[in-house]
Every structure is written in structure tokens, then in C-alpha cells.
Inverse folding.
């Protein structure tokens, strides 16, 4: 997903273009990592002094429902990032410190088939949490 695709999807689904929505999406486009609602609020607070968590959460929920953002839970907090642009099935490695992600191209569901005729699987999510090289270096300076 990128800014142009995100704004086009909003338009196609009948939602208004607002400066706040554009600024929220621009933040996700610039950051390319998982962000919490607080990160979004902190980033936009100076420009939109009266901005509330409710406004942020409503927009993040809308963007997630429209497939613009994807969500995960890290340390008990819901975090968001732009949905992946790739069409192929994949999963993620997620840095617990900076929120950056990396694709995992092998799917564990293919290695360990799960399910039977009495249960129809319609989706799954596989995430591996740890620390990226940069965050490991920052934690243990030589």
C-alpha cells in the first residue's frame, strides 16, 4: 500500500478526503513500521491541537477495515502499519523495539497442515517477534 492507493481506496469507498486523514496516512507512508495510536497523536498534535484519541482510533479502525492498514498487538497495545503491497502470501518478523518488519516467505501452515473437513479455515496470521540488527546494536554498543 502507498499514499496514492490509500487515498484512492478511501475515495472508492465513499469516504471524504480530509487533511487529517491524509496526514495520518502520510505518517504511515513515511515510517514503514508499526505505530501505536499514541505515536500518531504525538506526531499530529502540534498541527491539530484539539485532536483526540477518539478521532485517531476511528480513522485507524476505518483504514484497517478498508485494508489500508493492518494491525497487530505488541506488548498489549494495538499497533498499525500500511498493508503490504505484495500480492503473494507471507508473514512477518517484527522488531519489538522499533516496530520494523521483514517478510517471512515460507508459511508454517504449509509445513504443518492444520484442520479437517469439519473446520473451514478462512485465514491465519503468523508473526515472529524479536529485535532487528540495528536495535541489537543500539542495546549493546561495542
Amino acid at each position: 500500500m502507498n499514499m496514492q492507493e490509500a487515498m484512492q481506496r478511501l475515495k472508492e469507498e465513499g469516504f471524504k478526503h480530509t487533511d487529517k486523514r491524509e496526514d495520518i496516512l502520510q505518517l504511515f507512508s513515511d515510517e514503514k513500521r508499526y505505530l501505536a495510536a499514541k505515536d500518531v497523536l504525538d506526531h499530529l498534535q502540534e498541527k491539530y491541537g484539539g485532536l483526540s484519541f477518539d478521532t485517531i482510533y476511528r480513522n485507524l479502525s476505518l483504514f484497517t477495515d478498508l485494508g489500508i492498514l493492518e494491525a497487530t498487538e505488541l506488548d498489549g497495545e494495538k499497533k498499525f502499519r500500511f498493508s503490504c503491497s505484495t500480492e503473494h502470501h507471507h508473514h512477518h518478523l517484527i522488531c519489538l523495539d522499533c516496530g520494523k518488519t521483514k517478510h517471512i516467505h515460507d508459511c508454517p501452515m504449509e509445513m504443518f497442515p492444520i484442520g479437517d473437513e469439519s473446520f473451514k479455515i478462512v485465514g491465519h496470521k503468523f508473526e515472529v517477534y524479536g529485535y532487528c540488527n540495528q536495535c541489537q546494536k543500539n542495546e549493546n554498543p561495542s
About this structure: The mean pLDDT is 86. The domain at 91-139 is CATH 3.30.1490.190 (Dna Ligase; domain 1). Strands lie at 35-36, 69-74, 77-82, 91-95, 101-104, 127-130. The longest strand covers residues 69-74.
